[in-house]
Amino acid sequence: MASRKKVLLKVIILGESGVGKTSLMNQYVNKKFSNQYKATIGADFLTKEVLVDDRLVTMQIWDTAGQERFQSLGVAFYRGADCCVLVYDVNNAKSFETLESWRDEFLIQASPRGPENFPFVVIGNKIDMEESKRMISQKRAMAWCQSKGNIPYFETSAKEAINVEQAFQTIAKNALQQEVEVEIDFPDPIKIDSDTSKDFGCAC
Amino acid sequence: MHDAFKVYTVIEKLPHKIESIFAQGDKLYVGTLYGTLLVYSVREPLGQDEAISVTLMETLKTFSKKAIEQIDIIKAVGVLVTLSDGYVNLHDLESFALRTQLGETRGANLFSVFSKIEIQDGFPQVVTRLAVAVRRKVIVFSWQDSEFMSTKDFPVPDRVRTMEWVGTQNLCMGFDSEYALMDCRTSVLKTLFSPTSPTVQGALGSTLESTLNTLNTFSSLATGGLMGFGSKPGKPLITRLPNDEILLGKENSSISVGVDGMPKRKKGIEWSGMPEELGYSSPYAVAILSRHIEIRNIETRELVQSAEMPHARLLTQGKLLYIASTSEVWRLIPFSFPQQIDELVQKEEYQEAISLINQINPVLLDETVDTLGKIKTLYAHHLFRTHQYEKSLTLFSELDTPAAEVIGLYPAVISSHLPPKELEVVSPKPGNVDLNEANAKNTQPIIMSTKELEDAVECLIRFLADKRQKISKSLQTLQNNHDSFSYRHSNQEDEAEDHLQMLEIVDTALLKSYMMTHERLVGSLLRVNNHCNPDETESLLLKHKKYKELVDFYRGKQLHRKALELLKTIHANPGEMNGVLPTVNYLQRLGVDHLPLILEFGTWILELDPEVAMKIFIDDEPEIDTLPRYKIMAYLERLSLDLCVAYLEHVIHELGDKTSDFHNTLVVSYLAQIQRDSSSPDNEEDILKTKAKLLQFLDESTSYKAERILSRLPVDSCYEERAILLSRIGQHDQALNIYVHKLNNFQAAEEYCIKNFNSNDPTKNVYLLLLKVYLRPPNREKPMLEPALDILTRHGTHIDPSAVMSLLPASTRIDQLFKFFEKSIRESNKTKHMDMIVKNMLKAERLQTQEQLTFYRSRRVKITEDRMCPKCNKRIGNSVFAVFPDGVVVHYSCKETMAAMGHWRT
């Protein structure tokens, strides 16, 4: 029986409502952006095959609803995640301040085996907006990331596709380090009929 | 293993050789080698200890001339179907008289009957199929209810060794070399697999075999046990299971297959030897092996029971399980299911018990569902006791077992916070299963090694994380319901209270678990919304010196005083909580609601490290902006002059506060600082700095009340400050007096004039005032002519010469005034010329205006007899009329309408 070993990385995107989680995912996977805001309901995922260190891996990127704050998604959803992406809007101070509680909640819900080393990536999105609207400086965000164990930090624009690719490449790379090899079995379908089947015709 | 069946001997030492048996109701039909049919009535014993009652009802010695090879019944038609002498015969079920011999079945070796109620044309009908294998074909006879419908022949590739209906349309057949499934509607024959594994069978291995390898673990080959039989091929065996499933024998295993020919279960049953016959008696599979019989659970494939039955070779299918050798017949009666489950639970074979409950019809059990949950709970406990923590806690999670019950399994380090009553009701007491014994085991503490405990705690963390979310969610639903109805349900409130209590138990256990295995997560838990028990948390964190987490916890619980007291206590300890900064950060986020606390705990840090501590009032945080400035000013004033100054400087300069009280206080504070510092000669520099700040502030700020401050100024110093203040209240002469007489700073006096000169207000001519100060000094001092002349020379143009003349002393030399006069005269000439130019220009303008007026006055219209109003087309005549600027004449009454139509806005 043939079985292909495949690496599947489960990535979960969290953050306040309206910071651009869905847009980031869409930009990365579909290279598309829409100005229209549509709140995500529950959770949805897209997959993308990525080459990480000469290794082809499948990234399963889970986009979540920022409004629900862990209410509707069960712990099972968070289990088995390989990387958690925390997104905030650089023009919205509150979305930055709540990053910590998103992180805390994630760690509690997901109960990862090694919470100390679990890979997070922080993304400050919407840097395409004018500088005067910016509320959180890069310095401040980086200081926070540093204090939480050197979380990689990226500033992106899902709208203008700035830095999105780079951020997700790091996400994939860090997730791969975390990954416990998930073996996906593709069993050959059990076929019991064979070419020996014959129609014996009507005996009448 | 447990006892599923009790074995009763029904017939012993029968002189005839038994060839076939069949059971229906309380009847047992036995066919012999010499064609005798024996009919027994078998009554099941009512109690456990009673013997089975067997009565021989009929002995039909001449039922057939040859051996009766197979017996069955078609109930709907009321016939006994037998196979004898190569024919299938139908006898009346009551009289046993031969009804028909199915002639076309000559040479038959096997038949199979199947009846099923089917809905046809909207009516339920009993559909009966009788398949008869005759050499290389199968003949199928069909009945609907008692009416014979048809026969149909199907050619088959080989002699059929065994066959069984799968539903009314599919016939599964076993040949020597393979199994096949035939659809009787299409006649399509689908080959399945061989009853013999390829190694034994040799070259026959087809691709199908490989698929079976996944199903069949080949234990027989692995052990080599079967190799002894060498060339003995597997006997094809087919048994019908419920739900159109069939069980096919393949050497030592039995594989279940669905009507589509696909395997139904992941693994086949492994028998301890090669079965001779295969049967099914819900929910067990029964196999006759060479020396004994085996009974296995189809689902778990576990051996349930085995019994010595030498020479057994026949068995009946279905509920009534009979097994026969050539001269003996045994009846296997199942123990009641509650009894079996009870036994399994006693033996701690919970998985078997659960599987059994899942398979049997619920009506056979009292309170099945309830019991199932309870047994599963027991199983989870059992798994825990046997150190299978992951499985155990996954099951607990699935069962939604109360958290207290699970936490109670852990040693005190995790479970000590449980209320004692929770511990008592750890295990449920099901109705019909006596679990006292199991209970007793549960309550014994489980001894774990450190490593084991850590594993177990790791699993518990997952369980608790799941639990806390479930409870929170249901609590929220409860509260939402609560909100949507204005009245309050008392039981709903109780329920919410229960939830909170559960959450406390869960969160506290989670905290302890984290403390044991993932200290880092302690902080996470305490920062998010949690229900950890405050006392437990406090003592635990203090014990582990987790001060930062404890502070976070206090903050979350709004226990600010405790947090601040803790911070104060530990500020001298080395580590991340050292110093005043943690307190500063804490106070910064408190906001106006906690002002008394901020002020109370601000004191010690302000005294210890004022520079850092001042950040509680002057940092750029939204909470700080909300603090009332008056109160903070008053507080700091009491505490320290310097801090007050620092705060006011921040409020005034950074935040741009214009409140005059702040400005006044700042000035007064500066003065106080100067006064304080002047007591010691070392503070020269500080004083200068303060003075500079004060002067600048007095100069720049417009919000202080000069009158008030003037009274506070010391009489014998601060002349400059006084001068600024005097100028603010318009006392320019006094201010200038200070510059000239107190400070002897003529330049400053002159600058003062330049700054304060207002040409529009001649009554307050500061230059004249300065001149007066110079030339009319108080106390009959000598007039200061020099500076006065300087002023006249430089700013003489601003001063009225006549006023100057009256001020100058008579002794002034005229040449000293030359420059003044020259400038003055030039200035007055310049003014005069300027005025003349303006006068003439105005005159010209007036003439122009007059000319224009004349032009407009000269305009006229002539109203003749014929002049018509363009609006109403009537003559103007003697009526009042109006003229538009473009000369159009209309009736006066038509003017508005005309204008409204857009004709020339008047």
Structure description:
The complex is a heterodimer of chains A (204) and B (906). Mean pLDDT of chain A is 81; it is low at 181-204. In chain A, strands 2-3-1-4-5-6 form a six-stranded mixed sheet, sandwiched between helices. In chain A, 27% of the residues lie in helices and 22% in strands. With 204 residues, chain A is an alpha/beta fold. Chain A is built from six helices and seven strands, in the order E-H-E-E-H-E-H-H-E-H-E-H-E. Chain A is globular, with a radius of gyration of 21 Å. Chain A has helices at 21-30, 75-78, 93-97, 99-110, 138-147, 164-178; strands spanning 8-14, 43-52, 55-64, 83-89, 120-125, 153-155, 198-199. Chain A has a single domain (2-203), classed as Rossmann fold, CATH 3.40.50.300. The longest helix of chain A is centred in the last third of the chain and has 15 residues, at 164-178. With 906 residues, chain B is α+β, with helices and mostly antiparallel strands. In chain B, 44% of the residues lie in helices and 20% in strands. Chain B has a four-stranded antiparallel sheet, with no helix packed on it. In chain B, strand 16 (179-183) and strand 17 (188-191) form a beta hairpin. In chain B, helix 16 runs antiparallel to helix 17, helix 25 packs antiparallel against helix 26 and helix 31 (766-775) runs antiparallel to helix 32. Chain B is elongated and about 175 Å long. Chain A binds chain B through residues 1, 70-71, 74-76, 79, 100-101, 103-105, 107-111, 113, 115-116, 187-188, 190-194, 196-204, and chain B through 137, 152-157, 186-193, 206-208, 210-211, 213-215, 257, 261-263, 458, 461-462, 465-466, 468-469, 472-473, 476, 510, 518, 520-521, 523-525, 527-528.
